[in-house]
Write a structure and sequence with these properties.
The complex is a heterodimer. The longest helix of chain A is centred in the middle third of the chain and has 27 residues, at about 195-225. Helix content of chain A is about 75%, strand content about 0%. By secondary structure, chain A is mostly helical. Chain A has 14 helices and two strands; from the N terminus they run H-H-H-H-H-H-E-E-H-H-H-H-H-H-H-H. Chain B has helices at about 1-5, 10-15, 20-25, 25-50, 55-80, 90-105, 110-135, 140-160, 170-175, 185-200, 205-215, 215-220, 225-250, 260, 265-275, 285-305, 310-335; strands at about 175-180, 180. Chain B has a two-stranded antiparallel ribbon with strand order 1-2. Chain B is globular. The relative contact order of chain B is 0.20. Chains A and B meet through helix 5, helix 9, helix 11, helix 13 and helix 14 of A and helix 1, helix 8, helix 15 and helix 17 of B.
């Protein structure tokens, strides 16, 4: 909890700034709309956190989201009765992609940066090879409900987000979390003290794949079917995790902070929009803020932060 | 920590054995053998399809296709060897092409000024990358991603589509050739030779390997590691700038999407790693990168000649890259056993 404090403070400041410009934001409906919009990125950040804290990268989540949405649209094709099986299939595909990423990274000893980059190419190529270049078909109402609808006033996506967040925090408090952090901090020491490091990493990748599947289900409902739905999400998710103070290279940071980082990123977008810095310049401001935030984090903790640049790549 | 586990030391032991078989398993040899094999397979496949693989046209095509990526990948090799990496090259290429075309504005007289401006801007971007990484201690991944976003914002804000005009004389850089060798390929070759000389014959080259191998040890042995990293980033960005000039010459104008459409950021990293350079830094070289880029280009050509769907190409690429790196990783572990 204490490690999440700096990013939570930043988040509070940003939320307050949004509320000053747009009082509607303070009302339940306005805030829930924000949560709903942020949910996919926060879920992706939670998944990415597991991978990063174990000392690896997952660059494949963006194209995995796109692939999942395109697969869903093609298979459902407006048929309401197909919703259930397809949802199950999407989860299985997400877990499977994570499994492949994890096994190739740990057993074949390929750096995860390359494995997931390869997976990115394979997924984006394969899915459009299958659909012939553009997304086809349509999602059913039942499928879109998760991204759009709600249980009373509460959107489904917010409920799913809460569930994912609770599971992620519980996992990191359980034995699994401790072994995962130990693995990311020093893989050799962890292995020598009896941690099954390969298994821990494979699970981390599977969580990331699962998170991508859930995010895809929400985004498919929220934003609809397009070939760009997942574009750049891998970088956004990694940025969010790092904003939360999680160190690339592994072993440091909390999952709560990572999710707060994703909220912060989303709040930043909202704020920039409100102040009329929309469109292209938004990227410039985003770039400056990301560098500044990470640099500030490095300066504030000069003792705890050991430069691990080289390590991070080796571990990736 | 994985640095040690993943076969750096074994490689050195392998060199000591020095037999022909061990030599052939060095990544550089592997990638060129794979290239030969791929050319043979491509020749057979295209012949079965009723075409001819190594025509003048396709050889020139392979060289032209790979020149821009090749130049970027050489710069990326330097950054990766120093234990860093650069994700900003794609947007920098777009920016460079726009700056070049806008300054030239179709006039022959302004070519020199435009080239100078592009090189200066690229060097500045590299300097920023390097200083953010070394002085502000931001991880290279985040630092260069942030700089990439900054450039993207500026470029997208100022331009919606192609802008500027490149004079005929400069367009020669993109298309003309001497015999079977395009001018762009010669440019690539000269960049590669300069980088090779830098890495293997100068003090800076040894320092780059030292910093990439182990930054702490390098610092303790008196190398100003920060300066080395900054210099590699400046060189990497200048290479991206040169690639931007080349692409501006080919398009006849600057374009805000020319760098990202080519996927030069991730693809250049993939080409470097395909060439056997370790992503962790400190091991590898320019020759492997040249082989890696050519391998990707030959793969492209085979797919084009067989007229296979271009999405299939991405699938094969992804698999090839992962398999290649898995082979290099196995090589290391086997010898240490």
């Amino acid at each position: 909890m204490r490690r999440a404090l700096p990013i939570l403070a930043v988040l509070m400041v940003l939320l307050a700034a949004i509320a000053v410009v747009n009082p509607f934001f303070l009302e339940p409906a306005g805030f829930l709309a924000f949560l709903k919009r942020a949910a996919p990125l926060v879920i992706l950040a939670a998944g990415q956190y597991f991978v990063i804290v174990s000392g690896e990268f997952d660059l494949s989540v963006g194209s995995l989201v796109t692939a999942e949405v395109v697969i869903a649209a093609r298979l459902i094709d407006g048929d309401e009765s197909a919703t259930g099986p397809v949802l199950a299939l999407l989860i299985v595909v997400g877990l499977f992609v994570g499994l492949v990423n994890g096994v190739v990274t740990t057993k074949l000893r390929v750096p995860s940066f390359i494995v997931t980059l390869g997976m990115l190419l394979v997924l984006s190529g394969a899915v459009f090879l299958w659909t012939g270049g553009a997304p086809r078909g349509a999602l059913s109402q039942g499928f879109r409900m998760f991204g759009r609808g709600g249980l009373g006033p509460l959107p489904w996506s917010v409920l799913i987000l809460l569930a994912v967040g609770a599971v992620a925090i519980w996992l990191m408090r359980a034995d699994f979390g401790k072994t995962l952090i130990a693995t990311g901090d020093n893989v050799r020491a962890a292995a020598l003290s009896g941690v099954r490091v390969d298994r821990a990493k494979i699970f981390a990748f599977m969580f990331s794949g699962l998170a991508a599947a859930v995010a895809a289900i929400l985004l498919g409902g929220f934003a609809g079917v397009s070939a760009q739905v997942g574009q750049g999400l891998e970088f956004s998710a990694i940025t969010a995790v790092v904003l939360g103070g999680v160190v690339l290279g592994g072993g440091r940071g909390s999952v709560l902070a990572a999710m707060a980082g994703a909220f912060t990123l989303e709040a930043l977008f909202t704020l920039l929009n409100l102040y009329g810095i929309s469109g292209a310049l938004e990227f410039t401001v985003q770039g400056v803020i990301i560098i500044a935030a990470v640099a500030a984090g490095a300066i504030r903790l000069p003792r705890k932060f050991t430069p691990r640049r080289g390590d991070a790549h080796a571990a990736s | 920590m994985n640095l040690l586990a993943r076969g750096r030391r074994p490689a050195r032991r392998g060199e000591a054995h020095g037999g022909l078989a061990a030599r052939l398993r060095e990544p550089t040899q592997v990638v060129f053998l794979a290239l030969l094999g791929l050319v043979a397979v491509g020749w057979a496949l295209v012949a079965l399809d009723g075409g001819q693989f190594l025509t003048m046209e396709s050889v020139v095509g392979i060289q032209q296709r790979s020149a821009a990526l090749g130049i970027v990948a050489i710069g990326q090799t330097l950054a990766i060897l120093a234990g860093s990496l650069d994700l900003s090259v794609a947007y920098l290429i777009s920016l460079a092409s726009l700056v070049a075309a806008e300054i030239m504005a179709g006039q022959d007289g302004k070519v020199v000024a435009a080239v100078a401006a592009v090189l200066a801007i690229s060097a500045l971007v590299g300097l920023v990358n390097g200083l953010v990484i070394t002085r502000l201690r931001v991880h290279a991944f985040i630092a260069t991603l942030g700089v990439a976003l900054i450039i993207k914002g500026i470029v997208d804000h100022l331009y919606d589509g192609p802008a500027g005009k490149v004079p005929e004389s400069f367009q020669l850089l993109g298309y003309s050739r001497i015999g079977p060798i395009p001018v762009s390929a010669m440019l690539w070759a000269s960049v590669a030779v300069v980088a090779w000389f830098l890495l293997s014959r100068t003090r800076l080259g040894y320092r780059i390997y030292a910093v990439g191998g182990n930054e702490d040890v390098a610092r303790l042995s008196g190398i100003r590691t920060g300066r080395v990293i900054v210099i590699t980033h400046v060189l990497c960005s200048v290479c991206a700038g040169i690639a931007g000039l080349l692409l501006a010459g080919r398009l006849g104008a600057g374009a805000p999407t020319v760098g990202t459409d080519g996927g030069y950021d991730l693809e250049s990293i993939a080409a470097v790693v395909l060439g056997g350079t370790a992503l962790a830094g400190g091991k590898g070289g320019v020759a492997g990168t040249v082989g890696g880029v050519l391998l990707l280009a030959v793969l492209d050509t085979i797919f084009n000649q067989l007229e296979i769907n271009s999405f299939g190409k991405d699938v094969v690429r992804g698999v090839v890259i992962v398999i290649a790196v898995a082979v290099y990783a196995r090589r290391g572990t086997r010898r240490s056993a």
